[in-house]
Write a sequence for this structure.
C-alpha cells in the first residue's frame, strides 16, 4: 500500500526498550547522549530571540525561493566575520540541513543513483537518501591516532552511478576535520570522476584543537562543483527555528543554483518570520556559541583526565559536540550500553549507531551539563 521508500525495518532495540522502562519508573538517568542545546542548561537571550520574531513584515507573504536578499546577506556576513568572502547570490536558504540534503539529492541524482558518505558518521543519510530513491554507499574513515579519509577505499566505492561525495566537516561523531592535503585529493578525485562534493559544516564553529592544516569550510572557490551546508541549529543552538542554507561554488554552480531555486520554489518551506529574523538570530548566536564552546571544552578536559590510566581510551577529537571512547571487547557494545543503563542509570550510545566498523566504542555528548557528565563518566569507568 505504501511507497517502497518507506520499506524500512525499524524494530525496537533492547536499549530503547530498557530506556522506556526506566523512564516509566521516573528513574533519574544520567543522559550522556544529550545533543539538544535547548535542553542542555544553556542561558539563551530569550527576550531578544522572541523580539526578533515580532517584525510586522512577517504578516505579509512575499515568497523568494532562494530566500530574501537581507537574509542571504546575513549568511554572507556570517562567513565574512570568519574571513571568507561569499557572494550572497550563491546562497540558498532551506528549512534545515536535512532539507538541504533532500534538495541536493533531487538536484544531482536520478532514482537508483548513488551518493557516497563517510563511515562512521551520523545515521541519518541512509533515510534521507531512501526518501529520494537514491542509494547511499559508505567510504571509510581510518583511525591511527588521528582520523583520516581512506582515499583508496573511497575511489574503489565509486561506480558509474555515483553522483556525489558527502563530507561531514567536522565529522559527527569522530570530531575530525578535513585537512588541506585531503581536500586537494578529494577535489582531484571529484573532478576526475565528474562528482559533486556535499560538505556538511554544522559543527565548524566548535573546534577543540588548533591545527593550521584544518579546512574549516568548503564555501568559496573550488575545482569541483561544491555545496556547503550549515544553519541555525548548531551555530545559534536553535534547531527549532528551522533555518539552514546551501552555499554553491565551483564549475556549474550557476546552473545548479537555478535548478535549486526551482526545487525550492516548489516547496517554499522556510517560514517568513524566521527568514526576516535571520540577521538578528545570527547576530545573537555568539552568546550561546561561546557557552557551548566552554562546555564542550571543559567536558573534554574532564573526560581526558578521567580516562587516563583507565580501561577506556579516548580517541582524538578535533571539534564538534561528541567524544568517542574505545573500551574492552569483553562485552559487545550493545551489552555494555545495556549494562550501563540497567546497573548505573547511565545512557550512552554504542558505536554501531554510527556504523563503526568494529567494536567496542561508546559515543558521549560533550554538550551534557557538567555535573551530570562528571557523575556519568565516573559510573561508566567504574563498571568498565
Amino acid at each position: 500500500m505504501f511507497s517502497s521508500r518507506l520499506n524500512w525495518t525499524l524494530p525496537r532495540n533492547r536499549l530503547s526498550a530498557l530506556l522506556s522502562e526506566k523512564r516509566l519508573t521516573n528513574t533519574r538517568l544520567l543522559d550522556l547522549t544529550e545533543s539538544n542545546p535547548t535542553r542542555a542548561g544553556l542561558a539563551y537571550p530569550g527576550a531578544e530571540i522572541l523580539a526578533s520574531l515580532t517584525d510586522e513584515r512577517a504578516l505579509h507573504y512575499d515568497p523568494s525561493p532562494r530566500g530574501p536578499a537581507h537574509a542571504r546577506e546575513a549568511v554572507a556576513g556570517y562567513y565574512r566575520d570568519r574571513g571568507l568572502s561569499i557572494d550572497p547570490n550563491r546562497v540558498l536558504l532551506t528549512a534545515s540541513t536535512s532539507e538541504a540534503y533532500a534538495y541536493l539529492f533531487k538536484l544531482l541524482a536520478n532514482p537508483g543513483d548513488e551518493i557516497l558518505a563517510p563511515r562512521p558518521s551520523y545515521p541519518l543519510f541512509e533515510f534521507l537518501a531512501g526518501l529520494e530513491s537514491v542509494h547511499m554507499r559508505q567510504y571509510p574513515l581510518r583511525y591511527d591516532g588521528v582520523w583520516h579519509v581512506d582515499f583508496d577505499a573511497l575511489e574503489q566505492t565509486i561506480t558509474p552511478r555515483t553522483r556525489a561525495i558527502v563530507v561531514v566537516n567536522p565529522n559527527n561523531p569522530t570530531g575530525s576535520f578535513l585537512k588541506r592535503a585531503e581536500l586537494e585529493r578529494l577535489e582531484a578525485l571529484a573532478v576526475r570522476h565528474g562528482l559533486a562534493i556535499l560538505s556538511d559544516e554544522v559543527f565548524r564553529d566548535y573546534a577543540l584543537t588548533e591545527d593550521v592544516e584544518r579546512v574549516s569550510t568548503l564555501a568559496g572557490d573550488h575545482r569541483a562543483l561544491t555545496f556547503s551546508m550549515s544553519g541555525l541549529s548548531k551555530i545559534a543552538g536553535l534547531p527549532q527555528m528551522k533555518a539552514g542554507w546551501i552555499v554553491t561554488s565551483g564549475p556549474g554552480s550557476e546552473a545548479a543554483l537555478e535548478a535549486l531555486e526551482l526545487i525550492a520554489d516548489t516547496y517554499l518551506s522556510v517560514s517568513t518570520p524566521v527568514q526576516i529574523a535571520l540577521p538578528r538570530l545570527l547576530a545573537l548566536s555568539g552568546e550561546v556559541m561561546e557557552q557551548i564552546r566552554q562546555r564542550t571544552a571543559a567536558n573534554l578536559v574532564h573526560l581526558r583526565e578521567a580516562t587516563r590510566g583507565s580501561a577506556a581510551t579516548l580517541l582524538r577529537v578535533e571539534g564538534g559536540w561528541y567524544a568517542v571512547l574505545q573500551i574492552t571487547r569483553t562485552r559487545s557494545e550493545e551489552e555494555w550500553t545495556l549494562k550501563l543503563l540497567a546497573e548505573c542509570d547511565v545512557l550512552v550510545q554504542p558505536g554501531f549507531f554510527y556504523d563503526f566498523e568494529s567494536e567496542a566504542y561508546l559515543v558521549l555528548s560533550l554538550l551534557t551539563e557538567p555535573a551530570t557528565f562528571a557523575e556519568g563518566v565516573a559510573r561508566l569507568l567504574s563498571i568498565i
